[in-house]
Design brief:
The complex is a heterotrimer of chains A (380), B (310) and C (112).
Chain A: H1 6-12, H2 22-34, H3 38-47, H4 56-87, E1 94-97, H5 98-104, E2 118-121, H6 127-136, E3 139-141, H7 146-155, E4 162-164, E5 170-174, H8 188-194, E6 196-197, E7 204-206, H9 209-220, H10 229-243, H11 248-259, H12 263-277, H13 283-287, H14 294-307, H15 320-335, H16 338-351, H17 361-369
Chain B: H1 8-16, E1 20-24, E2 27-33, H2 36-45, E3 64-69, H3 75-78, E4 81-86, E5 95-96, H4 100-113, E6 119-129, E7 132-137, H5 144-152, E8 157-160, E9 163-167, E10 173-174, E11 180-183, H6 185-193, E12 203-206, E13 209-214, H7 218-222, E14 229-238, E15 245-248, H8 251-260, H9 265-281, E16 284-290, H10 293-301
Parallel strand pairs in B: 2-3, 7-14, 14-16
Antiparallel strand pairs in B: 1-2, 3-4, 4-5, 6-7, 6-8, 6-9, 9-10, 11-13, 12-13, 15-16
Helix pairs in contact in B: 1-2, 8-9
Chain C: E1 26-29, E2 33-38, E3 41-46, E4 51-55, H1 57-68, E5 71-72, H2 73-84, H3 90-105, E6 109-111
Antiparallel strand pairs in C: 1-5, 1-6, 2-3, 3-4
Helix pairs in contact in C: 1-2
The chains are: A alpha/beta (380), B alpha+beta (310), C alpha+beta (112).
Amino acid sequence: MKATPLILTAFRTPEALADLYLADWDLLLRQARRGGLLSSLHALLAERGLLDKVPEQPRRHLDWSHAVFERHALAVQWEVTQIRRALEQTGIPVILLKGAAYVMSGLPTARGRIFSDIDILVPKETVNQVEAALMMQGWATTHHDAYDQHYYRTWMHELPPMQHVRRMTVLDVHHAILPETAAIHPDSAKLIKAATKLTQPGDLAVLAPADMVLHAACHLFHEGELDNGLRDLLDIDSLLRHFGATPSFWHDLTGRAAELELTRPLFYALRYAARLLQTPLPQATTAGLAGPNAALLALMDMLYTRALLPDHPSCSDHLSAIARQLLYLRANWLRMPPVLLARHLFHKAFLSPDKLRESDFEKMRANEAEGRTISRKFRK
Amino acid sequence: MNVAALPLAELECRLNQNGLWLRTGPFVSRIQTTIRSVAADISLLYADYPLEDFGAEAHAFADFHIQIAQPTNLRRWFKPQAMFLFDGASPFKPLPLDQAFPLLEWGLNWCVSAHANDLLIIHAAVIEKNGFAAILPAPPGSGKSTLCAALVQRGWRLLTDELALVRLTDGRLIPLPRPVSLKNQSIDILRDYAPAAVFSRPVSDTLKGTVAHMQPPCNSVARAQEAASAAWVIFPKYQADATTRLEPVSQSRTFMRIADNSFNYSLLGTRGFDTLTKLVGSCLCYDFTYSNLDEAVALFNSLPTDNIPK
Amino acid sequence: MNFNPTSSQAFMLSGSFMPMLEAHREWRIADSLHFSCWGDEYVVYHALSGDTHLIGKAAAHILMALQQAVTDTQSLSRSLAAMMGVRSSTEFMLEMHRILSDLNKLSLIEHR
């Protein structure tokens, strides 16, 4: 392993950036851009009053990303307003998840955070009604391929992503936080019951603090593609620092983890947040969480301390690529029983063209003309 | 030091190793490639451009880290390709190797249009004379580049052929002079029109047909740090056999058309709106139809300057 | 998240027929609207949706009136008719409803 990557130094001790040479800034910006963290870095430096100490050239890049973030934050609020309007007549409780939840509940986690899709959680029995109500207001399903439809509707914990025909925004409608096929099934009814209503009008809610952390952990440590791994870990770090100020939070967190069968993802989340980002954790909390056996833990450390870093040559060593591959396989294994896995990987490998590659400069230009294409129009 | 000061062997060596740290307008790009045709075209078309000298390695900073590379797959044996890498990542698909230099040019445009959000970026050419700049926004096929190339061969200063950069803080136009991209018949038209102009070797079968790049005037490159004020917005349209025609367009419609031709108007939100409002409000706006370059240039030389709104 | 393209077709949208009964329903203007005006044409930017629209004098007059206060359809009609120097006919009312419906669809105004 190389010396601590600059990107970790930046988020652990932003004050230390005052000593950087321009060439270090150059590298830091590249690592941050690859991890989708430029605007988060801007937000952190702004919060600590350090922006004015950044030399002119890198400062310009941070300001560029801040402009993207500012527009993004407004667009998220507008999109959430549209979703609320589309669903308010149904009377169905709608819970915002992840990025949109951080934005709408005004959490510090939202500062500088850019994300591609909006995710909501609704009771499983209402999924069809929700889909119909959204379609009435211009959202359409994105996966028309019969296999994809079947895959989502039978095995997944969400509808195929829906895209708004005019705004081109993507919405994921979930009825659970893990796929039906996964070995563990956190009870959605419990999550919905404990959810916190937002203060503005409408029926929107967000997960309770402990559940919000558990969902972030569960998402990150069941996720196969860790392109935004460090960003997701920073979410966890930020949520823990924010909610952790309330004394009862840590007790709730471990108790809730046991209740929802999410002790293991929580264990990993706390371990790697502390290791990579030096998140302060109460000793009683970490001591009370059971991890895997020593051999497995050593392996997981080897994998995650690499794969959670931005996929940039300056953050990688000879094991980084294999670490990413192994964690991809692990994530798929956790999500599905082996027979289904073989079938799914077969489909992914041979039947789904890599649609993202169909772009060319002209198409990119067309997208740029509509504003920055932050949404992934096609899911792999 | 300018690119011209490097012998071709030294230029290739830099491109192969630590890269060529090239300044274009307000940006520094670090370019790396092992493809020799790209080196040759850079040497030809970027001869007058300054290289960044940082003194010590610790002070080196590039806005964009760019590589034109050959993919290392089987295809390279029977159908060689070139791909554009932005700090190692590939934002768009590879093209045939022959198109490596146009790919670099498109890639450099993408770097600016996808990032530089302290500027309102419009898909337009900008030229200037006597302190008055004209913005020529246009979709491909309108003859914008042909007209722009002709004007800069007749004494107008080139600010940009593709990306008009409007500074958000004061609405001034920031130059980004780069080689002018010409397509299909325009290449021969310009060769006839300006026999002394320098062109890259035409590359056929690109997405845009045959493409060649024209070296920007040395004086325009030398004045790349000199901002200009917009006086006119002119939507050019080449139409075979048409008489030269200049027709006023309302400012509100000009606003909408520029917004449609902007890369980051939406992203900039209220600042984009305010900047465009001021820009359009300070310009005379026209639709311009032409078929004859001499007439077009004569008309540009007689554009009104006394009633430009403040 | 993707940002909205600009819309230059503010009034190409087909207005749906709104019943006359709604004369007393009140309208309010959307938050965060910005205007630029040249002659009889206005460019409106809606900062929340990110949409930009080109609108004519009549629609602009309605938005300006709503910027002063929440107003019902009937009062808006009277004010617009006076501005345009026409009498409030059935045809005029239909046109009025069409404009209001379009502005509503564009999220520039909404029912209180």
